[in-house]
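User: ok so my PI wants both of these folded by tonight, can you help

Assistant: No problem, let's get them done. Here's the first:
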Amino acid sequence: MIFVIDLIKTVNAPETARDWEEVCRFFSRQPGFVSGRLLETIQTLHPKEDYKLTSVCCWETDNAWQAARQAAKNDAGLTNVLPKLAGKFSAFKGIIDHGSDYNPAKDGVADHGDQMVLVDVIYLTEGRMKAYAEMWHSANLYMSNRPGYIGACLHVTTNAENDSNKIKYINLAEWESKEIFFASVDTPEFIEIIKDFKNDFSLYLSKVAKTIKPAAEHMMAEAT
């Protein structure tokens, strides 16, 4: 699977969310679409950019994503929507890092309510990526034993060799509440695990604003 994660700047989050939903519902009718989630930032820690929303769309293959992207550009119904979204996205395309056994696209339960999704944007050089991944797996193992931890998934960029691509990983972690999250990270054990990367995190505590599944007509067509 391929994940297309867009970090979104906007001065009008409700309007951008409506535009996102229109585009994502178009995507939901395209072959290979797995799921789409729009996350709304509720609090930030060490942010490098002012991202108000995060779009997480999952596709079966990169070819499916590219075909759907082209179809959206050619769709007359989206003529007035796509220009409004242009320039607001910091696009990230990634795959699930080896060893991440939790997939929010399939397993995520934080669709509504008080659950919190942590969008952790990691800025690294390519040479530090391996060490970061090792640290992340240690941190994930530690958190898996903490109350209120639902799961996490580490997404690694498919374009790591590009020096202009500073975002090498995006970690999506789900918690029952942000209060439980803060209690879990404020421990000597966790601080020791992440100490070498403490300045590389840019955290966006979020809630799920919208979840889009594949359109029913497309799912029925695939079944026949």
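One down. Here's the second:
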Amino acid sequence: MTAADPPAALGPYFAVRSGPTPPPGFRPLSELYAAEGPLAARVAEVARVLGTDEPRVAASTAHLGLAARLWSVALGTAVLTGRVPELGGAWFALPPQGPFDLWVPSGAGPAATAEVLEATVLDGQLAPLAAAVRTVVPLAPGLLAGNAASALVGAARQLGSVPQLRGAAAALARELLARPALAGTGTATAPGGPLAFRRASCCLYYRVPSGGLCGDCVFTRPPGR
């Protein structure tokens, strides 16, 4: 891949549709976080796929996947175009599995800065997502914040697989990790070297049957169940 390729070339989490009107079957992104929205069904489907009977594990995994999708689109667009997508006007379609389909209004969004990404993603999307998840399954706020940080770093590292994008992606990620919503969620490597992150919480994936520790987990070995 080169820096001139579309975001989808980085993988399905970075793909985004755009145009004058959303495609048929799409819903406003705000409905994902609504009380009667599809989040509970999504968590149940994740539990089925993972083979877990622990609602916390399924809810955390579902949250991490949704956060990764939002960060990938926002950070990818920011690094590739210098603009932040208008997620406030986004629409979505949620398949039973895999990343949700996302449409954003056509036209350039605001200039890409850490402040704008914080307002667009952390405040505008991940805060209501975390609140919605906690109405389905009570999860610790620190765990959900750790998921948000982990998803951010994952998106930045994927962007970093393209040498021309590595520096900008890592710089924005480090700035965002220092914002109040993510401060204390973990430790990132210092600038000047590859971006890596060790979180201060656990996403609980080790509790999935045959699951293990994630690469950025706070634990060095799975705790006893």
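The chain has one domain: 9-207. Helices lie at 39-50, 55-81, 114-136, 141-159, 163-177. Good luck tonight!
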